Amino acid sequence: MTHFVRIVMEKQTSVKPLDESVFSNQHIYETAQGATVYEIKLPRQLSEDESDEYANRLANYMFEQGFKDFDIEISSDLDEVVSEETYDGDDFFEEYGVMWYNEDEELDEAEYQGRKVPLGKPMRGDVKKFKVYVKNPSGNTVKVNFGDPNMKIKKSNPARRRSFRARHNCDNPGPRTKARYWSCRAW
Q: Rounded mean pLDDT of the chain?
């Protein structure tokens, strides 16, 4: 099995390769949704602790290079063992409960582009995997898209969950109008 680390960047206006002296064996490609993926081959599989440390160091490096919105995925043999869960209809909500949050807002619905929408209730997205409507500080209703529709959510794996939450600084998720806030709530 080939081991790798993938850095998935949201849509970029210009794609610049990572420093070749640091990442000599990188492959850059674009997904159908326009995300840029940097795939770097690893010489061997990393242990759980090594994966977490590598992901944290890589995230710090990416921030230093000026990259802001990215996800890091490190291959492991667990990828083959953990099964993907697919839910139809309301089965997801029956399994995990309703994921909506309506702090400080008295309204449960608002108008967005001429139609009534529920506030603070994540639902299947049209552009991304999920979407949620919230009020921004100026009082306007905005749609927040979050999650990659092509990536599997394996939050039942404690190592992946811990790595995701560390990578996205979920201890301080930011405002409700940002995707990171809602992704951290889902994880």
A: 77
